[in-house]
Amino acid sequence: MALEDITLDCVHDTAQSDVDLPTDAVLQTAASMLNAAGDASRLRLLLRLAQGRRCVSELAEAEGEKLATVSARLKLLHSARLVSRQREAKHVYYELADDHISCLVRDLLNHAAEDTPQR
Amino acid sequence: MALEDITLDCVHDTAQSDVDLPTDAVLQTAASMLNAAGDASRLRLLLRLAQGRRCVSELAEAEGEKLATVSARLKLLHSARLVSRQREAKHVYYELADDHISCLVRDLLNHAAEDTPQR
Question: Given an 8 Å threshold on Cβ–Cβ distance, is B25 in contact with A62?
């Protein structure tokens, strides 16, 4: 950065308060989505679903967890609208809600991996 | 979806457990990032920073909050590596850590806005 680009005095941009912010309701929804995803085991489920739709028993087997445990995690992700589900005969299938979520998960993990020590 | 595409029996994909998952350390880092961002007031700061770097006093004024309050929120976002900061003379400037974070914030808010009731 060139020295002339540095503003030593704090020039307040009066337009800053006019930034086009979403409504409080949207911010609260977004925060709830982050909290629902903000757990390593639920995040791992989102990563598995980023590969395509899966049924609950398939996910439970892959995770080495009880069906009820995985089912509860998926319900939480579903309440936060991070995943969608379809019932077909006896099976309930889950998938990521849409491309926003797959992009979000990818960007998050890429960022987290950048300088997390690999053990 | 054509009927022939529907698998009524649950065919377990044995490769599913081999999905290329990140390490536990990366998953924990990612979960911490989500928790740091998972609050409406901290999310609003990230949105303001998505417009470009800002100094703490500028953000406090835009938020109508005390400097110490905004400073504490920014510290939390910085600890989770969601924002970076530079000190210049008496001012501390914050900006989003990188493009992963700006994409993440954009995707999240677009998704949250999709069917949140607008009041």
Answer: no
